[in-house]
């Protein structure tokens, strides 16, 4: 089972890139963030992408998430839902037979830092509740926190910057502590070039001067079936790159 997550930074601007990437990658589950569009604003082919059960949860010009499941993986439409703490169209889940997959877009926090911390605390409780049900979980998306210093290029390390604050990192660790594994980091613990976001100026992406903000956080039982996980830095013109993980379901 291949699970992919990508902050597209505007689905209408990236629709052709998404179509091309899906045709090449063929993920079984696709988690998108910052779609910045309502269903009514999407072209018909995008509303119901060929080969996928689609769920779009967005508003005009801001925030929004998508979650899409291959019809090959799931012949009948699975149950999609928004957790009760959702606001600004930032989270959606799908309960598949083997795992609950979540697409989440955590607030940046620059305009309302307390709201970001409240959302993260609610996300922690949500994960704890899923784990209490003994559900296997994969939380995918733009968490808007660089987990450690290693997750920020040395030229971008700023102790007072939102996204690198100790209280944010501590809250992320509390979420992970509910039986989750940071898939990319667990696979490559020494990789200090594993960035997923780059400021859109001074060729930051080409020079790989960035931050790691996009994650797949998986239950241990799911991680134990991991085949691969990597950042697709060459894909698209969003300021984020997709992250793709492949798990054995046999």
Write structural notes for this entry.
The protein has about 250 residues and is of the alpha+beta class. It is built from 6 helices and 12 strands. It has helices at about 10-25, 45, 115-130, 165-175, 185, 220-225; strands at about 1-5, 30-35, 50-60, 60-70, 80, 90-95, 100-105, 135-140, 180, 215-220, 225-230, 245. It has one domain (about 1-245): Endonuclease/exonuclease/phosphatase (Deoxyribonuclease I, Chain A), CATH 3.60.10. The mean pLDDT is about 95. The strands form 2 sheets. A 6-stranded mixed beta sheet has the order 3-4-2-1-12-11. The protein has a 6-stranded mixed beta sheet with strand order 5-6-7-8-10-9. It is globular and about 45 Å long. The N and C termini lie close together (about 10 Å). Helix content is about 25%, strand content about 25%. Strand 6 (about 90-95) and strand 7 form a beta hairpin.
Mean pLDDT: 96
- Oligomeric state: single chain
Largest sheet: 6 strands, mixed
Which architecture does the CATH hierarchy give at level 2? 4-Layer Sandwich
State the CATH topology: Deoxyribonuclease I, Chain A
Gyration radius, rounded: 17 Å
Query: Care to count the β-strands?
Result: 12
Helix and strand run: EHEHEEEEEHEHEHEHEE
Report how far the terminal alpha carbons are from each other: 10 Å
Task: State the CATH class.
Answer: Alpha Beta
Strand content: 25-35%
Number of domains: 1
Strand order of the largest sheet: 3-4-2-1-12-11
The name of the CATH superfamily reads Endonuclease/exonuclease/phosphatase
Low-pLDDT stretches are none
**Category by helix and strand content:** alpha+beta
Gross morphology: globular
Supply the number of helical segments.
Answer: 6
Helix content: 10-25%
